[in-house]
Amino acid sequence: MFKTTLAALLMLLPAFAFGSEPFTIISGSGERSPKQPQACVDSRGVAHVTFGVGDDVYYCRAGVDEKPSPLVAFQVPNMSLGMRRGPRIAHAGDAIVITAIGGPQGKGADGDILAYRSMDGGKSWLGPVKVNDIEASAREGLHAMTASDDGTLWCVWLDLRAKRTQLFASKSIDQGASWSKNQLVYQSPDGSICECCHPSVATEGDSVHILFRNSLKGNRDMYLVSSNNNGETFGLGERLGIQHWSLNACPMDGGMLAIAPNGEVVTAWRRGNTVFTSIGKAKSDTMLENGEQPWIASNPSGTYVVWLTKRDGQVRLAKLGTPNSTTIAENARDPIVAVGDGNESPVFVFWEQRAGDRVSIECQLVH
């Protein structure tokens, strides 16, 4: 069982070897502040990175031997950006696919998921292709995307076509060139799921797993809903964790899930002021530390979790199954961790860094 305290952690040796000092990908201030880094890692151990600056969606690559050179890939009008809103990226065969949400009016008045794809390593981009099939139904601005081993892309989002917040999904089998009819995955018996906590999605073979925060009977608990037939049908949503989180508000904190090498679904999420992990759909959990905004990734070398101690606080990193965690950065927001499939793939941590009125996107390689 993975459970520890900060005092105990300070007495332990560092758990990680860092490939270098953290490096800055881009920085800016005011309306040109970069926000919301996201990444996927290919079979060569290279991270494909996206983030937003105003209405500009950027793309670059980062790796042990690759220095990032971020460039504007395309623009999305009134792009949803901040508090886990922002572009998402996946690698599907020869294609790099990025999705982002925006619309002519913005600010919650409208919003569609727009997909762009590059077939030449990010030099040029094709699109946009709209993912949601009801106009402006993705205006909450919160979504996730991933690619399965066979190149199928899955996009999930908070949908408002029924005036209440529902969980919807769509898939693409042609590298993002077209998207399937939208599918209602979950509707809360109380009307809406949690209105402003991002969903996340992961796949393994024919299985599709979606993590989201529900709003049910006065509780804001994490739920997992799955399909074992490549999304033809989804089962019932099942609550994660031992206790409920009684809360009459949205914590704006949706957690993350990953598939461990043994095929188990591992999740990281917040309840109260504490970060927890859980395995599968069992109503059990393991406490990490006080914190928020956790993210999780897994490969044969281990399962890694990052989180914030508080907003504009420390980024902490832990490897599940070991008693050690460490501080990656200070004055940070919205970290993510990304890994490749190989045992030797580096672990990448990305986050927003604050320094006065300047914001930067930072990266740390971990071995």
Can I get a quick summary?
With 367 residues, the protein is mainly beta.
Please describe what this structure looks like.
The chain is mainly β and 367 residues long. The protein has two domains: 1-32 and 48-66 and 264-367; 76-254, Neuraminidase (6 Propeller), CATH 2.120.10.10. It contains one helix and 27 strands. It has one helix at residues 6-9, and strands at residues 23-29, 34-41, 47-53, 56-62, 71-75, 88-92, 95-102, 112-118, 126-130, 143-147, 153-159, 166-172, 183-186, 200-204, 207-213, 222-227, 238-239, 256-259, 265-271, 274-279, 286-290, 292-299, 302-308, 313-319, 325-339, 347-355, 358-366. The chain has a seven-stranded antiparallel sheet, with no helix packed on it. A four-stranded antiparallel sheet has the order 2-3-4-5, with no helix packed on it. Strand 14 (200-204) and strand 15 (207-213) form a beta hairpin. The radius of gyration is 19 Å and the shape is globular. The chain starts with 5 loop residues before the first helix and ends with a strand. The relative contact order is 0.15. Residues 1-14 have low confidence and may be disordered.
Tags for this entry?
mainly beta; 2 domains; four-stranded antiparallel β-sheet; 1 helix
Which helices and strands, and how do they pair?
Blueprint: H1 6-9, E1 23-29, E2 34-41, E3 47-53, E4 56-62, E5 71-75, E6 88-92, E7 95-102, E8 112-118, E9 126-130, E10 143-147, E11 153-159, E12 166-172, E13 183-186, E14 200-204, E15 207-213, E16 222-227, E17 238-239, E18 256-259, E19 265-271, E20 274-279, E21 286-290, E22 292-299, E23 302-308, E24 313-319, E25 325-339, E26 347-355, E27 358-366
Antiparallel strand pairs: 1-27, 2-3, 3-4, 4-5, 6-7, 7-8, 8-9, 10-11, 11-12, 12-13, 14-15, 15-16, 16-17, 18-19, 19-20, 20-21, 22-23, 23-24, 24-25, 25-26, 26-27
